[in-house]
Structures are given as C-alpha cells and as structure tokens.
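One-letter codes give the sequence; the fold follows as tokens. Both lines appear below.
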Amino acid sequence: MKSTILLVEDDELDVINVRRSLAKLNLEADLIVAFNGIEALDLIKKRIESGLPVPQVTLLDLNMPKMDGLEFLHQLQKENLSHLTKVFVMTTSSEIADRNRVDMYHISGYLIKPLNFNNNAKKQDSMEGFFDFHLRKILA
C-alpha cells in the first residue's frame, strides 16, 4: 500500500508546488489535500471509520480560514489522534511565539515559507530537500 501525505493548505499555489515537488522526486505517496483544519479532521476521522490508514505525514499551514493550523493541532490532541500522524508545520511565520505555540503539540518539524520550490540543489530548506532528507525516511 502506498504511503499517504495529508496537505492542509488553503493556498492553491502551495498545493501545486507540493504536488510538483513530489512528482520530481518520484515518491511513492498519495497526496490528499484539505483546505482547512475542519476538512482535515473530518478526513482523518472518516479514514479511521472506514478502516483506511491515517496519513503518515501531515503538512500543515497555520493561517487558514474556518479552522487554522493551531486549532487543528489542538483538536487533534483533544480527540487523541495526534499520535497517528507526523505533523510538519509549513508557515510564513518565523516568530518565536508561533513556534512555541505549535511546539507544545509535539510537532515533527517547522518549515518557513516561502520554501524554495525551484532550487534543484536539494538543500534542506527547499521543498525538495525536505522531501529528500526527511519525508523519504518517514515513508520508507
């Protein structure tokens, strides 16, 4: 069975860039997109109810409508689901206060956007670098 990545992102351009990065690396993973925290929580619960595996990795934007990333993390923990997926926050915020707020939810990583989607030099701060150095290990 293929690995699954949940992308919780309301910006279509970021969704397109993540899809491109996955395609470039030929990662054997399905990408599921939710456009806010409510959709993401519903998706996780429906997968559990139907016996499907929960995505191994969740890439989470913090600033979204309806339910933002912080509220999503809170609900994931409150409903005892946070242990089911490794969450990597992808955000434009480099503020220490934001990092501290998400760290209390034991996330797996914090990536600051804009990520360098077009750099082919596999640096860890590029999306390809993140996939190449981290995601491959998690999904292996």
About this structure: The helical segments are 12-25, 37-49, 69-78, 96-103, 127-139.
